[in-house]
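User: Okay, second chain of the day. Same drill as before: sequence in, structure tokens out.
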Amino acid sequence: MKPGAYVLISGTSSGIGAACARLLDQMGFRVFAGVRKTADGEALRQQTSQRLEPVLLDVTDEQSIRNTATHIAQVVGNTGLAGLVNNAGIAVASPIEFIPLDAWRRQLEVNVTGQLAVTQALLPLLRQARGRIVNIGSLGGFLASPFAGAYTASKFAMEGFTDTLRMELRPWGIEVALIVPGVIATPIWSTSLAAADKLLNQMPSKAVELYGTAMNTMRKKAYPTGGTSAEAVAKAIAHALTAQRPRTRYPVGLDAQLGILLTLLPDRWRDHIICSRQVGKALDMPPK
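Assistant: Same drill. Structure tokens below.
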């Protein structure tokens, strides 16, 4: 993959997607920047060159995906698409017992089904260019957390989706990589916390009685004051797209690297460590 090649990135309005779009543009690539609002695309254009083209892309809307795929095919012609970065995502926080099914479905629709729909639509163009696919996973893709069941379910799913896709696309030399960030300093956290507050306010009083203390404790600890920068994740994405021998997984951030070690512990030990760190004693088992 050389400068001048075409790449589509979904979810470029802010955070990792925006940082990736800026970096690849600086490297000389022709970026299709997927956004849901025209204003977000124009804001990104102010930070990049004329090579970057915003495209309206809602990964949950089949017509939007078809329109984007048709437009890209017309632009790239016989060159094909050299890269696809499946970055669009949301985070829904709620105790599983009380999460509205619509919210659960929305989480999986955006983070999993939407990534599949975009990948299916663009694969003919990727095969044409022997391109690459980069999916955005998470530390939550192999370490579950209290009240993040919907989000972790979606990221666990992306682990399996990515591994299977990588094996299936081997005959065409299409590399598939997974980026695994830890806590990243992006707007997704403030957005998800606001959504969690809204969900909590809509839940029955029993939910507050059972989980209110633990959720409030976690809320105070959940908003990252630091975290790895979105630019660091963008560099990992760029490596996955351009390296002669890209890795299959890219842990980004010390917490993501240390988190891998936690998976080696017995389940109950790991549960205790995670709960103690995130909600203190609020989810301790009652005395027998």
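The two ends are 61 Å apart (CA to CA).

User: Thanks, on to the next one.
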